[in-house]
Design a protein that fits this description.
Blueprint (H helix, E strand, L loop, with lengths): L1 H6 L6 H11 L14 H104 L5 H4 L4 H17 L2 H32 L2 H11 L5 H12 L9 H19 L3 H26 L6 H22 L8 H18 L1 H23 L11 H13 L17 H21 L5 H31 L12 H27 L4 H42 L19 H20 L3 H22 L6 H19 L4 H14 L9 H5 L9 H8 L16
Helix pairs in contact: 5-6, 6-7, 6-8, 9-10, 9-11, 10-11, 10-12, 11-12, 13-15, 13-16, 15-16, 15-17, 16-17, 16-18, 17-18, 17-19, 18-19, 18-20, 19-21, 20-22, 21-22
Length: about 700
């Protein structure tokens, strides 16, 4: 049976069970095993094992029945116990209810008895207290204070309680009959009050917190309690301001006192608020007045810096002080304290700021022009200037004498940085010192000053000088500096725009002043763009005039009708070489002076005029066969130069011009085929005919018949 039990190991598998049983039986293994397979023995073993399993099943069944019977018996016993416990619990609950009712009844009786006793005892205590006070009052009436409580210094607390009550009683007595006793009580009242304050002062100096708390509790009912608080505040500040930083000293002092004041006074928030008010109205106000009044009229720049610094540090200190308990509305309380210190200075702040910026900006500008030994010209205003501007825009002609600036742009990055730096500081001060309702208006006024100094007095003036310095298109070897003015003006305006977005926009973004600022900025940009466009256009005219001058002086008629057709050794003419070199320099100059899409716009305009000039120039000559080849070489070089523009339109124009030049050399019989080519088929027939007429063999070869 033990062997059988071992075969029932978990997890049970019937097939595995049979295999293990056969393996344990001698002769029950496979035929290839150590012993011969004996089926009879295996059958006998299986039959014996089946019998064992039956016996085991009967044994287990008997055990299960026994356990079930035992479980039923124990369940019945447990149910009886639960019923007994429930009956016991019901009895106990009834007893508890009875006890609770009895306790309630007794408590009611006790309360009633207590009320009766209190009703008897309270009048008795009042009578005793009244009798005691009458006894002390009689002593004052007799003028002889015999009681130990008034003569023993250790009983000053009890004496203070008595005299405080007597003082209240004396207030109700008629003056004519009790004037003398009232005076004596008042004298004793003030004497005790003075003694208590003196004792509080001594305890504070010794650091005896417990004694300070006791004396403060006694003085709480005296009129001199406020004086006690004043003494405490005064002594707290003794030796607290030993450094030069009054703000840091104040923060440390308040941090220290805040821990102590809660241990001494019954209303620490009131005492703490009074301490802070005392510091603001005395220490801080005196410090601010000293710092600002000494520079208000002598050094406005330093005055504004000091005002900004002092106001910033004061508000930062107030933010730290909000950590303490100062009452229900501590933010309003601290704001009023700050306003009481700075109100007189903040009222006149923006006027002083504007006057300082106006003076400072004018000084920076004048200092720059003085360094250049330049006497600033007076730029006209009003209707005459507007008329000149309209004429210049429509005719592109210089109005007034041409000025030689010797390459000076009259734009200074250093000056611009100084102006923007001053304005940045002004915006920061404006943000901090302006009332929220006045902030957009004040910021806009500062912006107008920046526009006046930077955009009008500096950039616009430089553009006017630059326009006046642009030579006429007929000038020879002209130096073109206006592109340098454009480059620097663009760089400066980027800085101006950055400050507009970073400094000004946050101050006005949610106010009606935003529209005014944007409109003013738009007007400034448009005025500058008009002058920049005019100057660039006239500069391009000068470039084209310079090219025209090179062609006029360098190009010879014999270049395209050489005397010896068979002895032409050059790749392109000298005029072409010089023009291409000049154009390449100007293209590079434009790229350095412009940015973004402006580069393509200007180069497109320059390229179109360059093409027009070459086109018109080529039509001034007549061409032999070899001269036509040389013209094609020149145009090829011009086209190579046009690639530097990186503008598809310009390259297309020169490609077409190159195709037109092929008409100068193509065989007469192929003219019609060439004119029908991809690049020439869309051109005007008169233009094609005009180019063919430039050939020296036009009449002899009767080429005109191809266009009839």
């Amino acid at each position: 049976m033990a062997t059988t039990a071992q075969l029932f190991e978990e997890p049970f598998d019937a097939d595995e069970y049979i295999e293990r049983l056969a393996w344990r039986t001698p002769g029950g293994g496979s035929k290839g095993g150590a012993e011969a397979f004996d089926p009879k023995r295996l059958l006998e073993e299986f039959e014996n094992h089946i019998e064992e399993l039956k016996q085991l099943d009967e044994k287990i069944q008997r055990r299960v029945e026994k356990l079930e019977h035992q479980c039923h018996r124990e369940a019945k016993e447990f149910a009886h116990k639960v019923q007994d416990l429930q009956r016991s619990n019901q009895v106990a609950f009834q007893h508890f209810q009875e006890l609770d009712e009895h306790i309630s009844y007794v408590a009611t009786k006790v309360c009633h008895l207590g009320d009766q006793l209190e009703g008897v005892n309270t009048p008795r205590q009042r009578a005793v207290e009244a009798q005691r006070l009458m006894t002390y009052f009689n002593e004052f009436l007799d003028g002889d204070l015999r009681s130990d409580v008034f003569n023993n210094p250790d009983k000053i607390k009890e004496a203070a309680d008595i005299i405080q009550k007597l003082h209240l009683i004396a207030q109700e007595l008629p003056f004519d009959r009790f004037a003398d006793v009232k005076a004596k009580i008042a004298s004793k009242y003030h004497d005790l009050e003075r003694q208590l304050i003196q004792e509080f002062t001594v305890a504070q100096r010794r650091g005896e917190i417990g004694r300070m708390r006791e004396v403060a509790a006694v003085l709480l009912h005296f009129k001199g309690y406020a004086h006690c608080v004043d003494v405490y505040i005064k002594q707290c500040q003794e030796g607290a301001y030993i450094r030069n930083d009054v703000f840091e000293d104040t923060a440390v002092l308040c941090q220290r006192v805040n821990k102590q004041v809660g241990e001494v006074f019954s209303s620490p928030e009131t005492v703490m608020a009074k301490l802070i008010q005392n510091i603001f109205e005395n220490k801080l106000q005196a410090h601010v007045r000293e710092k600002l009044d000494e520079t208000r009229h002598s050094d406005v720049e330093q005055y504004l810096k000091n005002l900004y610094d002092l106001y910033t540090r004061t508000t930062a200190l107030a933010t730290k002080l909000t950590e303490f308990n100062l009452g229900s509305d501590k933010h309003t309380f601290l704001s009023k304290l700050i306003k009481s210190i700075f109100s007189s200075y903040l009222e006149s702040y923006i006027d002083m700021e504007r006057e300082y910026l106006r003076t400072r900006g004018a000084m920076i500008l004048q200092r720059y022009y003085d360094s250049k030994n330049h006497q600033k010209r007076l730029i006209g205003t009003g209707s005459i200037q507007e008329l000149k501007e309209r004429i210049r825009q429509r005719t592109n002609l210089p109005l007034g004498p041409i000025i030689d600036t010797h390459g000076e742009t009259f734009l200074s990055p250093e000056l611009v940085v100084n102006l923007l730096q001053e304005t940045r500081h002004a915006f920061e001060r404006c943000h901090r010192l302006s009332d929220p309702s006045d902030l957009p208006k004040n910021a806009f006024s500062i912006f107008l000053l920046l526009v006046d100094h930077l955009c009008v007095e500096h950039i616009d003036y430089a553009l006017e000088i630059g326009l006046s310095a642009i030579p006429s298109p007929d000038a020879k070897n002209a130096n073109l500096y206006f592109l340098d003015v454009v480059q620097q003006a663009n760089s400066i305006f980027h800085l101006f725009d950055k400050q507009f977005n970073d400094q000004l926009m946050p101050l006005i973004s949610s106010s009606p002043k935003l529209a005014e600022c944007l409109q003013k900025k738009k007007e400034v940009i448009e005025q500058m763009e008009v002058k920049l466009d005019t100057g660039i256009d006239r500069t391009i005219n000068c470039m084209v005039g310079q090219m025209k001058h090179i062609l006029a002086t360098e190009q010879k008629k014999t270049d395209f009708r050489p005397e010896d057709e068979n002895n032409v050794m050059i790749q392109y003419t000298a005029a072409c070489s010089k023009v291409c070199a000049y154009v390449s320099r100007q293209v590079e100059h434009v790229r350095k002076s412009m940015d973004g899409k402006n580069v393509d716009t200007v180069l497109t305009e320059l390229g179109v005029r360059f093409h027009r000039l070459i086109h018109e120039h080529l039509q001034q000559y007549s061409y032999s066969s070899m001269g036509g080849m040389l013209a094609i070489c020149d145009v090829a070089e011009y086209r190579r130069c046009a690639k530097d523009f990186r503008v598809p339109l310009v390259l297309q124009l020169f490609d077409t011009l190159h195709a037109l030049c092929n008409l100068l050399v193509v065989a007469p019989d192929n003219l019609k085929q060439v004119c029908s080519g991809e690049q020439l088929t869309n051109l005007d027939r008169n233009l094609l005919h005009a180019f063919v007429q430039l050939r020296v063999d036009y009449r002899s070869a009767r080429l005109g018949r191809h266009f009839s």
